[in-house]
Write the structure tokens for this entry.
Amino acid sequence: MLYCYNKYNCCSIPHVKNRMSKIELLDNYAGVAEVSERLNIHPESVRRLIRQGKLPAIKFGNKWLVEKATLEQYASRYDPRPGNKATLL
């Protein structure tokens, strides 16, 4: 039987499987670089949108992460051009 030893206790291999699921959870999130590519804007502009509360994100350590489903919804209605938006009469 294989065991994983750490300073708290000893456990069997399912402990390693739990770590994999946490890594897989991070696959549902995009970093600032990936968001900037998707929205076709500079990474600092992404950070500004996050700080202004216009783009929902979480901070994990020292990095901002945006849920990919939220990113797709936001990208569908985002216009990167500055200034007044054109309207149809």
Remarks:
- The beta strands are 3-5, 10-12, 29-30, 58-60, 63-67.
